[in-house]
Amino acid sequence: MAKKAFCQSCGMPIADDSYKGTEANGEFSTDYCIYCYCYMQGRFVQPELTFDEMVEIGRKGLDNNSMPKMQKWLFKKLYPMQLKGLKRWKN
After folding, report:
1. Residue 59 contacts by C-beta under 8 Å, 6 or more apart in sequence?
2. Residue 18, SS3?
3. DSSP β-bridge partners for residue 13
């Protein structure tokens, strides 16, 4: 079974190449999604984005998700812990 890829900035599952960001050389990023990593520029869309701002963006995204309320509540509570383990936010 193939390991599921997740964006190392926002944690979004990367289902296929259409969700992958693009490096400056035109290759797909192995780490980041199209929403976090600039198309054909090899850099973050929001390079100055803070950890707390990313948490807020992710929580708002979960608000717009159709999952059950209890699951949504749990994901929102756990989201900061998930982010801390991602490449962009590790200290």
Report:
1. 76, 79
2. helix
3. 6
> 16-57 pLDDT, tens per residue?
999 999 998 889 999 999 999 987 678 999 999 999 999 999
- Phi/psi region, residue 68 (left: phi>0; alpha: psi -120 to 50; beta: rest), is beta
Amino acid at 20: K
Closest C-alpha among 65, 9, 63 to residue 35? 9
Give the start-end residues of each E strand in the chain: 5-6, 13-14, 20-22, 28-33
pTM listed for this prediction: 0.85
Task: Report how far residue 22's alpha carbon sits from residue 38's, in angstroms, rounded to the nearest whole number.
Answer: 6
Name the residue type at position 13: P
> Distance between CA atoms of 89 and 55, rounded to whole angstroms?
11
